[in-house]
Amino acid sequence: MNLIVQGAMLAAEDLRQLAQLAGAQRIERLGPAACRLIDARQEPDVAAYCARAALDFGYVPAGRRLADMRLLAIDMDSTLITIECIDEVADLAGVKAEVSAITAAAMSGELDYAQSLRRRVALLRGLDQGALARVFDERLRLSPGAQTMLDAMRGAGVKTLLVSGGFSYFTERLKAGLGLDYSTSNVFEFEQGRLSGRLIGSIVDAEGKAAKLRALRDELGIERSAIIAIGDGANDLAMMAEAGVSIAYRAKQVVRSKADYALDHTGLDGVLKLFA
Fold this sequence. Notes:
alpha/beta, seven-stranded mixed sheet
């Protein structure tokens, strides 16, 4: 196994200490803030050191490459983008504190996702649909490194699936603007140009995300080992369990503890170092 270490900064002393802890045979620089420690042992002290030094780390099988992967499934809110769209919509409706509290509990796995989503959407009843455009235009931003990661995926021939418990108003615009291949999400119901407080169709919850990934996997004839899944909340866990490589990005602890890798200090372009 090779040990990939990366962060906002990566000092020479950090490398020396980690190489010693992991018994690595040699060190290869992957960039100014990333390196590969060749033939490293999996030692608990490595995790403790990286936590203290604010570094991300991951043990990667030697020889694994991005070209071996065929599908990337990625969550939208707080993963591909920096915001929770429903919280920002709620801000324009004057109910952000209440909606954000429900969102946080749902993402930590404390509330049933479908039930929590209905509660949040109900609080938006009567809001003019123009508020959605304001959120998209004024508040929605890609996470650091997202464009670099997506460009590399496209260059390697990896298909992209944006799978979200959020809303099609946002996912469809991101899909078109970023050139993503597939998407799935929930659909707001409108009445006379305003949110009705209800959704159309079945809710894309944790199992809905996983089901979409399985269906696309079967349609494309992709092996589980060739799938990458990235998420941050409890409703991403079922989807992430369907992937050969699961990555928790700036995630809740319940997600970090179950993912193959966790990125807390780098951008989404840090994903690429795990396949360098």
